[in-house]
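Quick log. Single chain, no ligands specified.
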Amino acid sequence: MAQTIEPLIADLVEWVAKAPRAYGEVMDAWRTSCPRLTVWEDAVDRGYLVRERGEGGSVLVRVTPQGRQFLAERSRKPADAAQVQI
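-> predicted structure:
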């Protein structure tokens, strides 16, 4: 199963690296009812993504430095954190 989920985790982290996402948007796009495909949970547990409070109390999902390193190790180019503004 690890071979199946690794590319999915990379896809999720890469998607969030493009711009911080609203928590609800992430859940709509990445939540699964399959207990064997724990993409969101694994990405958070590994420290690749984090939930933070945004303006107005909204919850945003952002990529961590560990998540950017994860993408770099897989030759996936994450957005430069300095260029992303909310």
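Residues 10 and 74 are 8 Å apart (CA to CA).
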